[in-house]
Amino acid sequence: MAALVKLLGQPKVVSGNEVYALPKDKRGAFLAYLAFQNDWVPREQLAFLFWPDTDQGVALANLRQLLRRSKQLTYAANLNIETEQVRWQISTDVANFKQDLINQNWLQAIAHYQDHFLSNFSSDSPGFETWLELERGNLKLSWQEAAFKLTENLSKTDRSSDAANLLLQLW
After folding, report:
1. pTM
2. Strands (E), 93-155
3. In sequence order, which residues have a C-beta less than 8 Å from that of residue 144 and are 6 or more positions away?
């Protein structure tokens, strides 16, 4: 069974019957960022994200150490590391949520959004924190829009009480 990274709520990796919490340190923040991006990320971008006030050479050396430490985690062994870029191609609940929004599957989108993005997760990296707050806001807004669309659909099908309950969740 393919692994899934849950980023909505407490971040964790689910692989078959195994569940691994992402570490609450730079490794967890790094892996969460890569899973969210689900594409190649330039090393310079990562170095700046996690060490914005550090000399680029030092930041890149720090990134190499972070890569080595992250790759040692059982569930992150498939990190793709190249000279200029890094990626972690893995399924995420955020990607599923976004796909449901594209498909206008409001009910399924609401089901995916169980809690806020990287709930109770923080980092000592100001660049990461800025990115995290921006994405939290974007995803919450998308969830609210999906909930409003779903309440419209429920109201049209004589399920007003279900629509009202959903609206209460928005407040």
Report:
1. 0.89
2. none
3. 170
